[in-house]
Each structure stands twice: as C-alpha cells, then as structure tokens.
Amino acid sequence: MQAWHVHENGEPSEVMRLEEAEPPTPGDGQVLLRVRAADINFPDALLCRGQYQVRPPLPFTPGVEICAETEDGRRVIANPALPYGGFAEYAVADAAAVLPAPDALDDAEAAALHIGYQTGWFGLHRRAGLQAGETLLVHAAAGGVGSAAVQLGKAAGATVIGVVGGAAKAAVARELGCDVVIDRRDEDVVAAVKAATGGRGADVIYDPVGGEAYAQSAKAVAFEGRIVVVGFASGSIPSPALNHALVKNYSILGLHWGLYNTKNPKLIRHCHEQLTELAARGVIKPLVSERVPLGGAAAAVQRVADGVTTGRVVVIPGLDEGGAA
Q1: How far apart are CA 304 and CA 291, in angstroms?
Q2: FRET label pair with 302: which of 42, 78, 232, 292, CA 20 to 30 Å apart?
Q3: How far out from the chain centre does Cα 206 lie?
Q4: What is the dihedral of CA 38, 162, 270, 24, to 10 degrees?
Q5: What distances in angstroms separate CA 35 from CA 1, 45, 315, one per listed residue?
Q6: 3 state DSSP class of 65
Q7: C-alpha–C-alpha distance, residues 289 and 311, integer Å
Q8: Residue among 76, 107, 82, 30 nearest 272 (CA)
Q9: Which residues of 259-288 are buried (b: 16+ CB within 10 A; e: fewer)?
C-alpha cells in the first residue's frame, strides 16, 4: 500500500514522505480499515512538528480522522490508532471506538463529522450549557473546527456571531448561517460584538485560536458568560487574568475532547447518535472545501497548518490526480 510517513519532525510539506509500505497489522482489540477518506485536522500539523500532546514513535503516519471500510464491508468513522494514521490506503483503529458512518453524509463529509463536531457538541452543550436564545461567538468561524460550532450553535437556537480573517472567509461564514460576521482584519472585534449585542457581550465564546482571540473574548464576554478554550491555532497560549474573570463573573472552560475516550466513552457514542440525527435532518453538514488525492496530502496538511483553508480539506485515497474517483 501507499502511506505517508514522518521520519523527522518539522513542517508537514518538508517532513511527510509518500512511501510503499506493508498494510499495518492490528493489535489486540484493533481492526484493519481500508481508508475511504481522511479528514485533515490541525493536530496533524502539530504531530508533524512534534508539538502535539501525543507523540508517536518515528516514523509514523499522520491522519487522525477517517471514514473507512471494515473487512466485512461496513462503512465506519474512526480515529486511527497511531502510528498507523489515516493518510494511507489502510489504517488500524481500536474496535471499541469505531462508529457507524451516517448514511446522510458521503465519505468526505462523514470523515469530517467526528472530531470537530464532537468537540463542538461537548464544548457547547456539555461544558458551556448553551441555551436557545443565547448569543454564541465563534472565533475562526470559517475553519474546520469553527464551522462545526457555527452549525451546532444554530441547531441549538443560538444567535451566532462569527469572527474571521478576510473577505473570502467572511463569505463562507455567512453561508454557514452566522447571523453576524466580523472580519477581524477590518473591524474592532470587541466593539463589533458589543454593538451586535446591545452592549451585553456574548453568552458563550468558542475559541480554538488562543492568543489575541482570547484577549478579545475576555473583553467581549457577557455577565455570567462562558469562554470555551478549545485550542491554540494561533500558536500563542494565553495566560488568563483570573481577577478579571472574578470581577466580570464569567467562566473559563477547558475542553480536551480526547479525554472523554478514556474518562467516559459512553458519552462519545451518545454524542455520535445526536450528530447522526442532526445530519439526517440536514441541520448539520460538514463543509468540505477541498477533496485531494492521496498524493496531495502533504501540501494539503501544510495549507491547513498555514490557516489559508476554509471548512475541511479531505484526502481521498481512491481519487486520481485529476480529481476523478
């Protein structure tokens, strides 16, 4: 089979190599999966750089989210068990964590349903308790993680404000259903949020960016608001002023979705059932902006790492270089 391997840490476009390899052998409690589609996530870039909280032994295959086919022909979604990740023709996964792929979604969309939407669902519902009628602010609203949160916020009956960088991403955020779109390159984010909420601020803020975005969140959050810390795509990890949280009466909530796999895996399945129902109703649908062949994976991971993509970029092993399946 063909598989992308990382032999040393660095930028994805420099350290990912497409090589011939033997299909991986599943360990105890694992299954072999034929990859139908592999969604690119920001953690894939962090894995290449050696900056992710999980550091598989070198060489490894990145790709943490797939739609695949089991040996008995079932269509499933899974998080591959590293070092045998999804940017390959075959991967392995823990059998207990494999979930049925929703019939309402094609392979690329199904591959993109898992991490981003589960993170959004846990962040907005389990951690922040988002209620209908509240205002949700989503940073990086046109990106893979942010776009999922926008759709889930709208499904929950919230008014959604999306923050983006650039006119093209603003257009995507509007198409996703944002009620208000703020271009951080041209507007004062805090002032725009206050203007849109009559001075109250946002009840829930979903932040996968960190850095300056978090600083804006602390100024734009409402009384008894909740800031959900999802990640640090900016590369800058903020140090919150806890006295500020005290005097403004807001909560700072951390979310490490992967921890639920070990702490409470039943919730993962419950969430998947909720997401499958929403997808069947057409309320949520992953925004797949690009479908690339296996040979284009390294360049695509680099684009995601550089923050120049919208929605999800998905690697399709069965796609030829001309774009045909």
Answers
A1: 13
A2: 78
A3: 12
A4: 20
A5: 11, 20, 10
A6: coil
A7: 6
A8: 76
A9: ebeeeeeeebeebbebbbebbeeeebebbb
Q: How far is CA 83 from CA 15, 55, 93, 262, in A?
A: 15, 9, 10, 19
pLDDT at 323 over 70: no
| HSE-up of residue 292 (Cα within 13 Å, Cβ side) | 23
What would the mean pLDDT of 257-274 be, rounded to a whole number?
Answer: 94
Per-residue pLDDT tens over the stretch 104-150: 999 999 999 999 999 999 999 999 999 999 999 999 999 999 999 99
Structure tokens at 9: 């840490």
Q: Give 174-215 pLDDT, tens digit per residue.
A: 999 999 999 999 999 999 999 999 999 999 999 999 999 999
Give dist(CA 287, CA 107) in Å, integer.
Answer: 13
Other beta carbons within 10 Å of 50: 14
Q: Could you give phi then psi for residue 94, rounded to 5 degrees? A: -70, 125
pLDDT digits (tens, 9 = 90+) for 26-84: 999 999 999 999 999 999 999 999 999 889 999 999 999 999 999 999 999 999 999 99
- The C-alpha atoms of residue 82 and residue 11 are separated, in whole angstroms, by 19
Q: Which of 77, 72, 74, 80 has the alpha carbon at shortest distance from 44?
A: 80
pTM value surpassing 0.90: yes
Least Cα distance to 255 among 229, 233, 226 occurs for 229
Burial class (CB in 10 A: 0-12, 13-18, 19+), 248: middle
Residue type, 246: L
C-alpha–C-alpha distance, residues 257 and 243, integer Å: 27
Q: Quick count: other Cβ atoms within 10 Å of Cβ 207?
A: 30
